[in-house]
Amino acid sequence: MVKLGPGDVSLDDGEQLLATSGEAHSGWEQTVQDVEAMARDRAADGFETLMLTSDDTTPKPPDAGQDEEWGLVYIVPSNQAEELQPFADRASFEETVVYQATSTGHAFIVTECLDLDKQLALFVAGTYRMQHAPPLVRAAIEHGKMFTHVKQLDGTLVRTIEHDDPEQFFPDPEQFYAYEV
Q: Secondary structure of the chain in the HEC alphabet?
């Protein structure tokens, strides 16, 4: 959360992103359009698809809290959370494809989780500020894995998905390390 000043309201990263950067806003709009097109393409290929969008995404390193949870944490609306649970219960996501772009210090990401046998495709779209990512990038590369955590606004965990190829999420780690203070 970002505090604007004494007595002011707080904005989450997504709201701040939209309020402060026209280019970043445009990047998020493009990401949402892209994920919708990707889902349509998979559906045309016979896949059942589910699309989640989160403008409140946080790169969380292992030492960022008291629990062992680390990875990208996506906060989704309750209606999307309700759809995810039965969808993911039927799936074994054995393949991950990550699409991303960066602009003005923001990463725009779509993670596609696939169950090829059951023809299920989950798309998780989010955006975050790259300056918050370096500790997570290091941990993911060091551990050789990455996690996607989907949560509701109240913090309730809906689903965690493990990915075995962190390089898909961070193909150029130096790009993220450049934002370290």
A: CEECCCCCCEECHHHHHHHHCHHHHHHHHHHHHHHHHHHHHHHHCCCEEEEEEECCEEEECCCCCCCCCCEEEEECCHHHHHHHHHHHHCCCCCEEEEEEEEECCEEEEEEEEEECCCCEEEEEEEEEEHHHCHHHHHHHHHHCCEEEEEECCCCCEEEEEEECCHHHHCCCHHHHHCCCC
Q: Considering only CA atoms, which of 134, 123, 100, 111 is closest in space to residue 27?
A: 100
Q: Given this model, what pLDDT does residue 38 score?
A: 97
Q: How far is CA 11 from CA 1, 5, 19, 62, 151, in A?
A: 5, 11, 9, 24, 18
What CA dihedral angle connects 31, 35, 38 and 42, to 10 degrees?
170
What Å distances lie between residue 77 and 32, 74, 97, 112, 116, CA to CA? 15, 10, 23, 19, 27
Q: Tens digits of per-residue pLDDT, 114-152?
A: 999 999 999 999 999 999 999 999 999 999 999 999 999
pLDDT in tens, 29-85: 999 999 999 999 999 999 999 999 998 999 999 975 656 789 999 999 999 999 999
